[in-house]
Structure formats: C-alpha cells, structure tokens
Design brief:
- The protein is mainly alpha-helical.
- It is built from four helices and no strands.
C-alpha cells in the first residue's frame, strides 16, 4: 500500500506554498517555484483543485513536486526515474491485455 502525506482539503498549489514556507523560501520566489513544480509534474491545470479529489497518480505526482522543492541531487535522479518509469505518467503507453 502506498501513502502520500497530503491534506485532503488543500489544493496542489497550497501544498507547494506550505512546503515552500517550511523551507523558508523567500516570498517573492514562491509563485515562480510553485508554477515550475506544477509544470514539472503536469499538474499546472490542476493547481487549484483540492488533493482529496485527485487520482492516485495525481497524488503521487504532487508528492514528487513537493519533493522537488529539495535541492538534493539524489532526488533529481530519482525524479527522472519516476517520470520515465511510472506507468501512470504516460497512460498512452499502457498495454491492454
């Protein structure tokens, strides 16, 4: 079983803003950082939707975006693997069977 540490009532944007605050990111950089992370995980059109209504794949992508607020190079390598290897990331590559 997989668990994401997300609050059902917060939007994707609010989650990222909250974690930017946890990391003490300067306020003038928050909007650009949030938009960049939403775009990185293809959630820019869903930024103002509450996480409680997200599918499992969308929740996982939001968790990846939160993790991407880190500057750790190990995470960057993991992020590339997640984005390339995840079956839910590119549903058109799924094999029906």
């Amino acid at each position: 079983m997989q668990h994401d540490i997300l609050w059902e009532q917060l939007t994707a944007r609010e989650h990222l803003e909250l974690f930017c605050a946890f990391k003490n990111l300067p306020e003038e950089q928050v909007d650009a950082e949030v938009m960049s992370r939403l775009k990185d995980v293809a959630l820019e059109e869903h930024g103002d939707k509450v996480a409680g209504n997200f599918s499992g794949g969308m929740r996982r992508r939001l968790s990846v975006a939160i993790g991407a607020l880190s500057t750790c190079s190990c995470f960057v390598l993991s992020l590339i693997c997640v984005l390339r290897c995840s079956a839910c990331w590119q549903p058109w590559h799924r094999v029906s069977g």
